[in-house]
Amino acid sequence: MVLKEELLRFPMLTTLRVAVPYIAFMLLVSAGGCIPQGPCDADGNGEYNKAMLASPTIVVKDEVGERCDTVDWRYIRNFEDANATITVRIGDPFKGHKMKGMVSIYDIDARLLQQSEIRQNESRYEFRQPIEANKYYYIKMEATEGKASYNVETRFDPVDPCAKCPEGWSCVEGKCVEPAAAAPCGGACPTGSECDPVQNRCVPIPCGGECPEGYICSERLNKCVKEPCRSDGDCARGRICKKGRCIKEGPVEQPKPECTTDDQCGEGKKCVSEKCVEDAPPDTPCKNKVTGRVTAVQPLPNGVEITIDIGSGRGINKGDSGTVSTGHSFKVYQVGGSRSLARINNVKKDELRTGTTVTIIATKCLD
């Protein structure tokens, strides 16, 4: 009926140029159709070069749908080689969802690494992907029918450095070694020398390998020195053993206590058994200030992630607190041998630069 009334108005349209598209439009409406809508990118990450970071410590939540915001991109990156686990959950796991589409994993060169079809009412999709240090990998969420919310979780597990060693090879100091070179020093060293397995070469034996009775070998001096006493029984009558030396017996001097109260110790210390010790909590027996620098800054939804050029080798533990020279504070959430990751909230990327100095209170006890 609507179409008939509109066609009766057709003589009122002044030109055929206007009438033809108008009639086509009304035919579409009368058939129950709707005005086609082009694709849109509601959240601004519909292209790979606008991808948002999927951090291991943050569950990324978003939504895609066939009519608008059909594609979302996320990226992951780690400062050392790792085995990444990427878990995508779609819709409500208890109520299901009506969306169809595709989840794809790409590398920086746009090579498709993994892909899984999104099926209606199937909520969980998990990918395990080896990744290389400091390289970008992209997660593409695409809806072809329906719409649904989703979230992305990531986890990075350290890589076994010798997992890729060929069969028959050996793993020495974290490196793959050919069978012929696996036996240190070729299996034998000449007389007067011994094998150093770390350097994989024969080195001289200190002191020639033996010393006369009553003497021991000083490796530092590479000569035999008099054996220190271990008890008074090792010394002649009238002498006692003190600090490895036999000395004349005399009155024993009682050492003066270093302290008797906490007030006699400096700031951050307390008096324990008449000695001043660091006043550290029981679960953090060591506390040292360690200085490093920011080597990378990545934006997050509510702040930034920074890469720091010091790690467990300098005593850094997960959860250690620190400050940037700009005054911002942070906590370390991921630690490698020589790198650490931390997150700073409520700060923009342009407020921090690479090379900025950071100070961390390291709680790992180093030998």
Note down, in words, how this protein is organized.
The structure is a single chain. By secondary structure, the chain is mainly beta. Among the domains are: 48-158, Sandwich (Jelly Rolls), CATH 2.60.120; 251-280, no CATH class; 288-362, Thrombin, subunit H (Beta Barrel). Helices cover 7% and strands 40% of the residues. It is built from 3 helices and 25 strands. The protein has helices at residues 2-8, 16-30, 179-182, and strands spanning 52-53, 60-65, 71-76, 82-90, 100-107, 112-118, 124-131, 137-145, 147-158, 170-172, 175-177, 193-196, 201-204, 215-218, 223-226, 239-242, 245-248, 269-272, 275-278, 288-300, 303-308, 321-324, 329-335, 340-345, 357-362. A hairpin with a 4-residue loop joins strand 22 (321-324) and strand 23 (329-335). The protein is elongated and about 100 Å long. The model is unreliable at 1-38 (pLDDT under 50).
What's the assembly state of these chains?
single chain
The arrangement of helices and strands along the chain is HHEEEEEEEEEEEHEEEEEEEEEEEEEE
What is the CATH class name of the domain at 48-158?
A: Mainly Beta
CATH architecture of the domain at 48-158: Sandwich
Q: Structural class, please? A: mainly beta
Q: Give the count of helical stretches.
A: 3
> Which residues sit in consecutive blocks of at least 5 with pLDDT less than 50?
1-38
In spatial order, strands of the major sheet run 20-21-24-23-22-25
Radius of gyration based on Cα positions = 35 Å
Q: Major sheet: size, sense and barrel closure? A: 6 strands, antiparallel, barrel
Shape from CA axes? Answer: elongated
N- to C-terminal separation? 90 Å
Strand content: 35-45%
What helical percentage do the residues reach? under 10%
In the CATH scheme, what's the topology name of the domain at 48-158?
Jelly Rolls
Number of strands: 25
> Would you tell me the overall average pLDDT?
80
